[in-house]
Amino acid sequence: MAEFVQEYAALRWSVVVAFLCASAIVVVRLVTPSAAGAMPCPAGDAQAEYARRCDNSIDSDGSNTCHESDAAHLIMCLVMLTMLVFPAGANPLALRGVLTAITVVFAVLLLGRIAEWHSESRAMPADRMVALGYHVVAAGAMLYAMSGHRDGGHGGGPEPGPALVLAMLFAVDAVVAIVAVSAGWRYHWLGHPAGRVLSSAIVPHVVMDVGTAYMLIAVVYG
Questions:
Q1: How far apart are CA 178 and CA 198, in angstroms?
Q2: Could you say which of 39, 113, 153, 203 is the most buried, measured as most Cβ atoms within 10 Å of its Cβ?
Q3: What pairs with residue 58 in β-bridges?
Q4: Residue 204 near residue 22, CB atoms below 8 Å
Q5: How many other CB atoms sit within 10 Å of the CB of residue 188?
Q6: 18: which residues sit within 8 A by CB, 6+ positions away?
Q7: Which stretches of the chain drop beneath a pLDDT of 70?
Q8: Reduced to 3 states, what is the DSSP secondary structure of residue 169?
Q9: Would you state the pLDDT for residue 208?
C-alpha cells in the first residue's frame, strides 16, 4: 500500500484533505447539537421519526444528535488519516490491533442496541441498525485491507478479488448517496438525512465511502 500511496501524491493528499474536512464536520456535529442535521428538524411526531431514522435522540430543547454515527466516522477518519500521512511509518501490527478493537467495539455496540430494542419491546429502527452495521463493515474492510502487511507497509496484503469487490461496494454506496441528494430524497438509504443539498450527515459518509474504496485499491495495487 505504501508504494501506491506515495507514488500518487496528489491523490493521497486530496484524500487527506477530504478526511480532515469530514473530521471537522463530525467534531462540530458532536459538540454542537444544533449542527447534527442540515435540514430543519420537524416538530411533534415528525421530529421523533426524523430522530429515529438518523440515529438521533431528541434533547429536552428539541435538538437532535447523531452521536453514534458521528463518533464512529471520527474514529475511522483518524485511523485512516494516520495510514495516509504515515504510509511507511505506521506499524501494521499496531494498526491491525486498533482496527480489530474498533471492529469489535462497533459490533458489540450494534448487538447491544439490538438487545436494548428487544428488551424494551419496541420496534427496531432498521435504519439505525443498518447505519451501525455500515460502520462494522467499514472497520472490517480496513482490517481486511491491512491483513498480511509487514513493517513499513511493504509486501503482503489481502487477496485482490475480495478487496476490489469491497472497494466497488463502497464506491456504489457513495454514488447512491450523491444520487439521493441530487434527486431530493429525504433520506439516504442508510438513514442519513439527504435533502436537496449535501447535509452535514451525508458529507462524512461519502468521504468514508470514497476513502475506504481508495485504501482498498491502494492495498491491491501497492
A1: 8
A2: 153
A3: 64
A4: yes
A5: 26
A6: 207, 210, 211
A7: 33-66, 120-127, 148-157, 186-199, 222
A8: helix
A9: 93
